[in-house]
Amino acid sequence: MNIGIELPQQYVTQKCAILGVTGSGKSYGAGAIIEEFLKEKIPFVLLDVMGAHYGLSEKFDVLIYGGSKGHPLDPKAGELFAEAIFDINSSIIFDVSHWNDFETQEFIGSFLQKLFNLHSHDKKPRHIFIEEAEVVFPQTGFDSSKQSLLAGNKIMKRGRSFGLGMTLITQRPQDVNKKTLSQSQCTFILHMEGIQELEVVNKMLRNEPNKVELLDGILKYQTGDCLLYSPAWLKRIEKFRFRKRETYHAGDTPELGKQIQEPLLRQMQPLVIQTPQQVNELGMPTSTTDGGEEENKYKEIVSVNTMMPIAVIFAILTGFALGWF
Ligand SMILES: Nc1ncnc2c1ncn2[C@@H]1O[C@H](COP(=O)(O)OP(=O)(O)O)[C@@H](O)[C@H]1O
Ligand SMILES: [Mg+2]
Hints:
Blueprint: E1 15-19, H1 26-40, E2 44-48, E3 63-66, H2 78-87, E4 92-95, H3 101-121, E5 126-130, H4 133-136, H5 146-158, E6 164-170, H6 178-181, E7 186-189, H7 195-204, H8 211-220, E8 225-230, E9 236-241, E10 272-274, E11 279-281, E12 287-288, E13 294-295, E14 299-302, H9 307-321
Parallel strand pairs: 1-6, 1-7, 2-4, 2-5, 3-4, 5-6
Antiparallel strand pairs: 7-8, 8-9, 10-11, 11-14, 12-13
The structure holds adenosine-5'-diphosphate and magnesium ion.
């Protein structure tokens, strides 16, 4: 997988992190990695907190839920989505840019917990990219982040043996739970400048004889420049530049007087979940309530027991045959 440097496909089950100040190129670089996943058809899940990734569907078939471009997404549907994507091989982007932190934590907590359970019974490779990782795996937080933090820790510690890998993306590594972040075996360090942020990297590089030189380099990095730090797994500590993107990067800051050229996106059919008792279709087009407000809820279409009508007809026919009527 060429992202400006060669990465092995085993990245899919690895624990990774992308760190850098805002505007340093984290989302752009993560997008380059994800483009390679899409080319190789390696399944992934992406939690897109800023709505920066829908442009991937300019060239690739990828399910998008939430945000301005995706099918509607409900914060309470985490478990349902984990079940729905577990069996299929396609990848999915959850654009939660329209939610508050509590909604994001609720959704991703139940989603990750369920996904971990499913993978622990039936191992298969899948990677999870988490943008703004400090939101769902905070160092200090409220009860609302408890489930997502526990699930995140489990995946970073034990997910690999069940096929699950994860990349934590953050501009504030000091605010990401230390137990979670310290598991990273493949860290991409882009430009950094804050003292607390650099302190995290300083600790990470503590055993490197050329630590001062490396830190000095990071301070001077241009957008897109990156240090690949993977001393144990890839046995590489190397500066590179993330390659040019093949799809539209929606993370660009809008500029005054400059028209944003949105690309044409490929549309994918929404997921359909079927159980014997009910058919839940996730991602029906948004409907409008009396007040005219948008209802971003997945629609429970019917709760039909398909065996019922057959049983009634059978009983009537039997009745006739036996001369009851
Ligand atoms: N490797 C790169 N090559 C060219 N432009 C880049 C590169 N990385 C980032 N950029 C540009 O820099 C800006 C910020 O990048 P982005 O990835 O959105 O930053 P952040 O670190 O905040 O996620 C964007 O306009 C993007 O197009
Ligand atoms: Mg970003």
